[in-house]
Each structure stands twice: as C-alpha cells, then as structure tokens.
Amino acid sequence: MIEVLQSGTRATLQDSGRRGHRSRGIPASGAADRLSFAVANWMVGNVWNTPAIECVLGGQHFRFHQDTLIGLAGAEMWAQVNGQNVTNYTAFPVEKGDILTLSFSRQGCRAYITVPGGFNGHTFLGSVSTYLPAGLGGIEGRALKVGDHFQIHPVKRNPRKLPPGYRATFSNHIVLRTRPGPEFEDLTQESQRHLFINPFIATRNTNRMGARLRGNRISMRTYEDMTSGPLLPGTLQVPADSQPVLAMTDAHCTGGYPRVLQVITADYWLLGQVRPGSKVSFQRCFSRDAIDILKRRTAFYRSLMDGFSF
Q: Backbone phi, then psi, for 92, in 5-degree steps?
C-alpha cells in the first residue's frame, strides 16, 4: 500500500472525469491537466484514464509499503525518493519503505502520480474523480489527509520511456487560445482589444472551480442582469466589477455573468497549470483553426496513447 505522510497544499484522486452530466448540474471534474495525467499513466503501462493522484503546488510526502513502479508528470515540483532527485516525466521503481517527496512547485501547478493498475476510490456516475464542493468520488469526496492509505495492485511492469516531443513544458505564463463567447460583442471596443494585449494575473482566489484574474478592466457597453446560461471549463466571464473570472475544471454548469471568451478544447489541459500568481494571456483563434488544432493534437497523442481525448 501507499501511505500519505504529508498531504501538502491539496491532493485528490482523479481520473478522466464523469462527462455527460452537466445537464443534471454535475461537472465532469477529473484531472485538471488531462495531458500530464495521461502521460503519467502511459509511463507505467496503464490505460490513459486510470485513476491517479493529483498533487497541487507540492508539499506531498508518500511512503511505500511494497515495491512498485511510479509515474510522475506535470508541474516541476523537485521530486525526491529518500532524498535523491528523480526526474519529472519519468517512471521509476520504488522499494518497500521508500519515501517520495514533492517540493513546492516552481513551474506549473499540478503533478500526477500513477502506479500500475491505478488507485481505488469511491465511484459516482462511473468515475472516481473527486468533486470537493459536493463531496463526490475519491476518498469520501475529500482531499487526501495524513494517514490515508491506498491499496495498490501487485502488478510488475517495466517503466516506459517517453519518446521525444510528447513531454509538456510549463512556465508561469499560461497562453490560452480562445474563441469569442456569446456576449463578446457586448464588450466595449476598448475592452475587446485589452483582452488580447496585456496578460492578467491569477489571484489567490484560484482553484479547481475558477480563477479570478487581475488586470485591465474589462467593461460591457451596458451591464444588465442576464438569465443564467450554460457554462463550460475555459469560459471567461465578466462580473460587474470588470475583473474577469476564468472557469476551471470544476466550474459550475451555469452562470449569470457575461461570457466573453471560450478556451479551445485543445488547450483545456493548460487550465490545470494555472496557479495563484500565474500570468494568463488570451489569443484569438478562428473556428476552423480550433477544429484543426484539436484534430492534429488528438491524433498526435493517440499515436502514443490509444483513445486519448482532450
């Protein structure tokens, strides 16, 4: 088994999510960075959507009570086993009694830990992904805490080495390609330009549900109460205070603020690496380009991981 010695900032159990239930008010949840999550699974020989531990900002310590194989991918957290550095985006063996530690993240926000066969958790609507606001899935619907134990499968596999070109690189300046949202044309001309000129800063109010951004004031021509409408991860909303809010993986299914931008599907995974203090920039993307980008990137990663989707 694996024992949690320090839970750090926050760690949860996640898989690829429970998609298809937003009409019932249930977000998909799942790994906030699906790409790093999938790669970490591939390196230990798992199907790409096998449950993994999502670690946020570092500070997590784990003790292994049996020999196993570990995959690690995502944010740069200066990982060590028994005080010896291990390389990110690799799979490596650990022995009974070994301790894995993750330091505070310097680049990015979330990293993923995988083992052969994955981790077991409580299933809700076909997924073990943890949705903290409603206490669904994972381990009693909560974040990991000191003393938690995971039974792991006695599967022996050799580590896989990630081929060149498949490793993601991170900085603390996240660039997201976007399409206009339903209320984009209701922005002032000046605000339409400002959205794409200067970066915003993710404030301390940033988590799996959303990121409040600080930067240029983004104003509507007129600000009126609007009927709540569909909301997706990657939707940029503008509240009355003119400081945008970026919806994240666990975002509400509806919202009552103007929706001015929508992050393209191929860039959803980058939402998982936005952290407090990150710069966030938005780029325009034409509709046809967004479709082509998604097709190309999906085909590229499916050549490595069968069935993968962003």
A: -150, 150
Q: pLDDT tens digits for 134-168?
A: 999 999 999 999 999 999 888 788 999 999 999 99
Is the torsion defined by CA of 90, 129, 124, 235 positive or negative?
negative
274: DSSP letter: -
pLDDT digits (tens, 9 = 90+) for 74-117: 999 999 999 999 999 999 999 999 999 999 999 999 999 999 99
SS3 40: helix
Residue 25 identity (one-letter amino acid): G
**Which residue in the block uniquely carries the two structure tokens 């993750």?**
102
Counting beta carbons within 10 angstroms of the beta carbon of residue 25, is it exposed (0 to 12), middle (13 to 18) or buried (19 or more)? Answer: exposed
Residue 230 contacts residue 257 (beta carbons within 8 Å):
no
Task: Give the domains, in start order, of the chain with CATH numbers.
Answer: 2-150 (no CATH), 173-294 (2.40.100.10)
